[in-house]
What we know:
Immunoglobulin-like, 8 strands, alpha/beta, five-stranded mixed sheet, three-stranded mixed sheet
Amino acid sequence: MELTVKLLVFFIAVMITVPSVFTHSVDASAVPDWIKNTAKWYGDGDISEDDFLNAIKYLIQQKIIIISDDGTSTRPNIVIPNGNSEKGSHGFYEPMHLDITKETVVIWENQDDYGHTVQSQDDTGNVIPIFNSDILLTGQTFEHKFTENGDYQYFCTLHPWRVGTISVI
Length: 169
């Protein structure tokens, strides 16, 4: 059991310090401080192995850490964070840009207290019928499988200043 925990700690440390090995789009600010603190406290011996493993379990259950059979994620999440409906807030989609490969299913999750949409748009800002969600209420998700290479833009029709892009490479 001790070896398993050590390997898990090593894997998480590598994942945090060398994120480009595991994904194309990384934003260190997306890693909550409590995750960083929990890993540090465990490394320092300040919390128990059970507490640390429960934190990892939570991250997996919330799909913050996604583990696939081949070691790569093919189902990245894009989050619509709380406070996103207010103009000038920290908002946008997180991440704002995502690089993926063909056949990847992208899942958007609304974590805001207000409804949002995900609407594909062309270069001039017009909605186009590639991927378009209904209004997503708090906790609801929308997913789309990208089958062709290209750059895709999207926005929220209810809050049009909220935009994001996806590049399929």
